[in-house]
């Protein structure tokens, strides 16, 4: 599922995570496992050494380090927003929020 048009095929859990990533003000309790699940649905995730993950979403490519706690930090949220926006998933967030989804 690498195309933004496939966003309609995301399950509710993935959509909720997507909305949480784009939420303003930035949420400080977005679970890393939920993010990995979303990224596996919209792109490619490869675990490398020492808790690092190589993520590809659309044309975006980045390495993330697994957080020490269960939640991701603000910089990771910013990086995810950039990746997902470039890949066209911001429209899916708008659609989900128009439907009344909140996190």
What's this entry about, in short?
Helices cover 43% and strands 16% of the residues. It has 103 residues and is α+β, with helices and mostly antiparallel strands.
Protein model, in words:
The protein has 103 residues and is an alpha+beta fold. The chain has one domain (4-98). It contains 4 helices and 3 strands. It has helices at residues 12-22, 32-42, 74-86, 90-98; strands at residues 44-47, 52-57, 60-65. The protein has a 3-stranded antiparallel β-sheet, covered by helices on one side. α1 (12-22) crosses α4 (90-98). It is globular. The model has no long low-confidence stretch (mean pLDDT 86).
Blueprint (SSEs and pairs):
Blueprint: H1 12-22, H2 32-42, E1 44-47, E2 52-57, E3 60-65, H3 74-86, H4 90-98
Antiparallel strand pairs: 1-2, 2-3
What structural category do the secondary elements indicate?
Answer: alpha+beta
> What percentage of the residues does DSSP assign to strands (E)?
15-25%
Count of individual domains: 1
Low-confidence stretches: none
Key attributes of the depicted protein:
16% strand; 4 helices; alpha+beta; globular; 43% helix; 103 residues; three-stranded antiparallel β-sheet; 3 strands
